[in-house]
Fold each of these.
Amino acid sequence: MQSVPEEWREGRDDRGGDGQMLVMKRGDSQVKDGGAGAGEAEKESYMMELTRLVQKVVKESSWWERRGVDCSILAAAFLCLPPAFLLLGSSRLLWFLAGMLLMGVAHAVITVKGTHLASHGALSESQAWGKFWAVFFIEICGSFSARAGIQGHIKMHHAHTNVIGLGDSSVWKVPFLPRIIYLFIAPLAVPIITPLVALAQIKGHSLVHILRTAMMVALGLYSQYWLLINVSEFRSPYGALVCMLVCRAMFSVPYIHVNIFQHIGLPMFSSTRRPKRIYQMTHGVLNLPRNPLLDWMFGHSLINCHVEHHLFPFLSDNMCLKVKPVVSKYLTEKQLPYQEDTYLSRLNLFFHKYQELMVFAPPITELVGVQ
């Protein structure tokens, strides 16, 4: 676990918890009446001041910067699908593999970047369109329940980031698996697991909601299968299904890695004694460095602007990147953590401390959701 500055201290839950990190501001050496209230006001003013700085940048930005760039990337991913289906129908191995790669990249952009932005309503200022895009990207493209995804990601993970038992870490936690299997092989099953989890999540909901979710997930899966049979001219249904699995699982390993790297192993908080938002997010969230491939496929808010995203979750990927200098400068000036680490460094940490971070970690009691 990373250390925190000297003005912070660790504590344990009064109920005898197992080492939860309780981050709080240390007052003056002599405690005075009203000192706690003054400290809370100072913490609140930090977030308000940073919010004003970010809002100023957003207001000065054009629609293209706020939403256009990310919408164009998603549109480009959809435009890659027709040539991908055609290339998959080629009898030449090189062209076939090119089609497979193109399909895999497009699928990653649509189902990771697209579903993430849609879950936050970052694709449109209209609430009606926001709901439409959430169903389209999360259910049809991502094979998951839009309601469960938003509930788990927005209302749990973002509201309770690194709070033990609530939004404490990744939904992808399978402690009985060996580390090699967990980190490099099991993620390949994500395309199969996702719709099954979606069906489990809609139990207990209204019949209309269950039917809609089941139909949207089936529509997305069958559409790709139908196009592989009729456009790519796959002769075997099993061949088409294997192709779907390969394309959908192509980038699931880095997806799962990113999902766990940016929260697990960082300070955790008690649900009853959590710090103010700005301290919770700066201590419990980490940025990875810029990576052209992952930035484009998964989005800046999941890679190199994850701190910015957790502080301002309704900004688009491009806007997170634009406000990044403002946020990093402000946090540095206020001597707040701005945590960054490399992909390989985090992978090395999880590989060598797998038991500590994943097996013996506190259990998740609520779905964290789509990250």
Amino acid sequence: MKPIILHGHERPITQIKYNREGDLLFSSAKDPKPNVWYSVNGERLGTLEGHSGAVWTIDVNWQTTRVMTGAADTTLRIWDCETGVTIGIVPASSSVRTCGFSYSANMAVYSTDTQLKQQCEIAVIDVRNADESIVEANPILRIPIPTSKVTSILWGALDETLISGHEDGEICLWDIRNGKKITSVSDHTGAINDMQFNKEGTMFVTASKDNTAKLFDSESLMCLKVYKTERPVNSAAISPILDHVVLGGGQDAMDVTTTSTRVGKFDAKFFHLVFEEEFGRIKGHFGPINSLAFHPDGKSYSSGGEDGYVRVHTLDPSYYDFCFDY
């Protein structure tokens, strides 16, 4: 299994995303130029130029017609996926930390950081007819978050709810019609770095600084499974075809220079979804893994690291043959 190594960023990767068909891979990093790649051979399709700060988050809609990026230059940009032209720019009060298209792609959500004397807030905007005029348009919904800032966000079922993960480990479920909190749980003790759904959207996995990843039910927020590691977990993804979860992380970036890659534990770990047991590791990065994504066909996965590389791993036949005895 020889990975395809994509090098188009000068700074650490912040997020990677596949489109629905899985033929394109989108990557954002702490440099101002998000990239688009062909996932099959690693050829770079192009870059999205326009931001002037670190790009924290990237998302692509269901039809792969539009891409959305949020950056430290306090803007959210919507791009035409085919041409790479900016369709609209949404100004924010502080850094845009997370963003996501709804399933219908009629709406989009983004959240901002607590900085510049501004408090964190979640905003939902209408992107059906996004163009230059979106600058003046007011969000449909604003939810101020006075407590702990939002570090990860997902759309709930039927675009009726939002699930937010916070820096203090809390997970909240919001009703989008009135902006009220439906329920919240605090199963994590550290910041939540990443949240990703399974294929059906019935469960999601969280990755946290408290050295665990946990599986939650999407509607009740009940904690179903816990995957323990010995390092902070930065990202976790659920396989679309098998009962497997892949976890990526490593110690904090500032401590990396003092350890070798072997001690730093920068490998991606595979856990069984149900039995919570680790059964495989894949090495490669020279630093913590910041983002993971499974290909929609489940036959490969990608990882983006602090070293600025995106690695596309195609899984060997032996991976599918492996099964637990029970």
Amino acid sequence: MNGPQLNELPDAAEQVRPYVSSLRREALQELTAVRSLSDGFLIKFLRARDFDVELSLKLLLNYQRWRKESPEISRCLSPSSVLGLLNTSYHSVLPERDHTGSRVLIYRIGQWHPKDWSAFEVFRVSLMTSEIISMETETQRRGLKVIFDLQGWSLGHALQFNPSLARKISSVLSDSFPLKVRGIHLVNEPMFFRPVFAMIRPFLPDKIKQRIHMHGADFCETLGDFFSSHVLPPEYGGEAPEIEELCQDWTNQLLQSENFLQQVAAHPTGDIAISPEDALI
């Protein structure tokens, strides 16, 4: 049975157990300070790499290393700490998946005011969402797609970025988080966003570069080539509820998941048993 076939099986399937056991054994040899790793934690990494144990182990170790080296982002996973940003309708996870089963995320950069919120705090919002949706079996299998709306991008936003942050962003997108990034869509991107994108791009693997699509200001028609109308809110050419309503819905989901997220922040090694119910999705 190959990786994609294994990916379709439930967590408790007998065919899955040897892969979980193998990844646990190898991970515990590398992470000498960790006592145990839950099945659910390990399966996230196996599904992200189609049950290739060697690649899953590399991803898991990168995840642990990234969190350890980025405490300013990963140590405080508290939605209430960035509630002011969330209440600007900055971010949403759309309720409907796309035709491939991928989760669809929207970030509205113009709603982020750099004088009020640092790039690290903004990045933390993304990490919190990623931790929650990575608990969903269907998202583990089908991955996610992201729409970045860059209307309102300013010099203040650009000054928040430097090569170190660019490296952290690219690392999460490519090899340090157990989620498959199936597409990155930029809309309303201004000319002066390009220097920041040029800073991030060299750190991205070719497969991610090939999944980046720039739509410009006339994005509604071209986004329709990738997403069905029932998935997208009307502001993006679709028929779903309005974006502000969807942003508020996801803010509520984040707030309801505060205890789960704080548990993840306190135990970055995964030395706890985490179930999908903990995420309150």
Amino acid sequence: MASNSKLKSIALLVCDTPMPEVVAEHGEYPTIFYELMRKSLPDELGWEFTMDAYDVVRKMEYPSEEKIDKYDAFMYTGSAASAYADLEWIHRLIEFTAHLAKDHPKVRIFGICFGHQIVSLALGGTCVKNDGKWEIGPTKLRLTNIGESVFGIDNELTIQEMHQDHVPFVPKGFHLLASTEVSINQGMISTYGTDYIYTPTVDSIPISDVHIITVQGHPEFTRQIVSTMTAKRANQGLITDALKEDVDRRNDALGHRVSGDGELVGRVLWKILGV
């Protein structure tokens, strides 16, 4: 690991390819996630980072056992796939996640959307379709006390969303970060020393104690990415025109904050890594 230098190393587990219209304007997930972490890293601190991408879908590739501990964190992208699908690459990803969490505890785990759901399935929770309910576009999350402590803000966090599947409860060993009326588990954290048998009741956690953090939303998505995706899904009949128009209105209200509090989430990830 690179924890004793001004360099951090991230392994990105790429769980999908964005739709072609998004790729044409913004690149594939390695580019999109690299941009999130670059923009979230304050220049004046003098830190640098590397991000190695692993295609866990088509190639089912992972770093060797010897290389895992050279990374400071593993980050999971979103996916159009369902985390509960009976697919070989998903089974392998769940098995790897459980192995990573239990046998390589010094490496942090950052799960985004589909990654949030995979972490749940790997460590005692579940994931299900949310009765056809979509959460799309900038969405206000109600923070728990721990969520306020972790993100350093009061009451609410706004994040871009794009999902129908969700994690319907908080697995043992995790603390809830935020909720909405549609999805109770909008993010969760696990700390070092967790036994996954029970979850202690606490109001705050030192950021350095965080081992795993997940969010149901997409801090890496910008207004432009979400607008492109909603326009296509409306044209395909997957969402209604009324929902698309509502997403557009909420995106307009963000003004210059095109990813909502996405970069704030990125800064929290850097703080967990000691930056």
